[in-house]
Automatic annotation (TrEMBL):
Coiled-coil intervals: none
Protein name according to UniProt: HET-domain-containing protein
InterPro entries assigned to the protein according to its UniProt record, in alphabetical order: HET, HetReg/Transcr_Mod, WW_dom
Domain WW: 573-606
Domain of life according to the entry: Eukaryota
Amino acid sequence: MAEEGLFVYQVLDPPGHAIRLLTLLPGEFSDDIYLSITHEELEDENRTPYDCLSYIWGDAAQAHQKLYISQKLAVDGAEVDVLQFLYVRNNLLAALKYLRLPDTPRVIWIDAICIDQQNLTEKGTEVARMGQIYNKAAQVIIWLGPEDEYTSMALDTIERLSAGVELTWDHRGCVVKPGSEAEAVQKHMEKSKFTPENWTSFSRLIQRPWFRRLWIRQEVLLASKILMRCGYAEVAWEKLEKAIVFVEHRVSRAYVGVDDILFCRSLFPYVGSDILTYTLHRSSLCGYFDSRDLIYANLSTSSAMKALQIKPDYSLTAAETFKDMSCKYLQHFKNLDLFRSCDLQTLPASFKSFVPDFAVPKSESRLFSVYAHAGTRQSYVDIEGGLIELKGRIVDKIRKVSSSRKPIAIRTLSSDNLKDIIETYRAWEPANLMTSTTYLGGGTLLDAFIMLLSNGFCKETYHGSHLPTIQESRESFLAAVWSGGDANLINTPRYKAYIGELMSDRRSEVFFQTVEGYIGASPTDVREGDIVSVLLGASVPMVLRPADDRPHAYRVVGPCFLQGVMLGEALLGPLPEGWLCNIHDNRKWCFRREDSDRRVWEDPRLWPLPAHWQAHFCDLDDENSPCDGSCEADYVKAGQLVDRWFFDTRSKEKWHEDPRLDVRGLETGGLELQSFTLV
């Protein structure tokens, strides 16, 4: 068969249904690579079984290597086999050489070849289907690259550890088998059979560039079967997961770095792992060539993304792509979760201020969801010029910003920068910290400052057994953190819970005070004169900057933590005396009285439901629902929180959400809201 020149793509027929499949022809390692290409319908039950390759493309500037592809073309009315050539990057050619069988063809799908990368229409269509393509593959083969001096020991470490580990808690935790090598590591690392070389080899394996590539998350999260290859060596994906979860929870960071673990851990699904803000945050840390892929690479794996029904469109700019996704998210979910990623300081000029640039990794503190919105839901109005109008309330104006920014927390086995962080906190201390008896948001200024530093994490609100009580937080602060305390006491066991919260993430923030006396902290570039607002649907307050070019218009600066308004006080007022707001096990907010353990969904600050609405606790999907109302009595009697839903007796509609908490319901209930035009 004569070589006919550079490979020319034939249009997929039918578009959106057919895929290209490659047959890797047999040969020896040193032989040139020969492939044949065919078109088959993805959904056809009689389609040829195929494998998918998951790999890194590598630098576009690297040397390209030649391979040969045969395909059937119509020539003078007859179908003939034509041999053409294509240049691919080194890593792909190496993978094909190692994966090629000596005497048997292998059918495989490879994105760089099976998608016409120059045809943007086809590329958008095929990118939207990649989740299906990987899901329907017989197996996904992960290509990490050729073996090196660490490979053999790394794979041996994975095999030995995984043999003694069972995953628990929906794959978020693990237990070790008695007598296993994993148990020996857990009990006493130094006496186990694992040497420092084992951990060095393991680390070198998971530090390979493949683990940081953006698209691999879709490729492995949707696969039905996965095999990891390194040269000719291989290991089952399930064994790596067991080893990773074990190392995450049971092995000191002195042996395996936290960043390596977090990158690898994000490849395995577990409850809560697909929250969109965290998905986009993790994605921003990965390797990619096109920032629009931060959206498109998550379309098949994020439940939130699936609900938005976004179609890849590479004719849009990154700013247009991110705005489209952000507005669809707001329209569908009625909340402003994504606003927590806004950062005016780093925003490109082509972006609207309310559209986060997801390509810029964000401080972890931006991602914490609290209850400033009091469960309210937002709706927006499009305004000419690409602007939007939202509802909410102005809380106060910033009058003073600290010149000291808290450093990012750094921890290793031998040292940390906790004392530097404490020095920053001491520089933040208001002059009247120890003399002020009242704070605008309730309690004393001292307690407000103590809670601000820990982002409000305490046992009374979050129930975590590792968390300090408010009293323990106060004692710890006065002993070791306050400028009148002794920073050398930070390692005292009874102060560990509160001090640990000061080092619990990688946030870097500045402290500010408002005109009326609120105190807050923000990871953004807040300034004097900025406005602190609580927008409906925003779980944390947002800092806004008045726009100079039009009245009542603002630019979104970013999120903040404002002590005294984090539990809905700016919208619904303070909780009645004796009531507490808590986070439930399912991460929803609920309420209880101080003298009772019984928790309820009903916010004691809300007014009664309109007469034509009913609250129910029976099964929403039951064909006989709603019931006669007895479900509430059963719910109260059982003393346990079960999902609540609402029934409109006039329209017969069933709602998951409280009808009092959207814009119309709030205004009907007498709540005065302000309009904000965001530019």
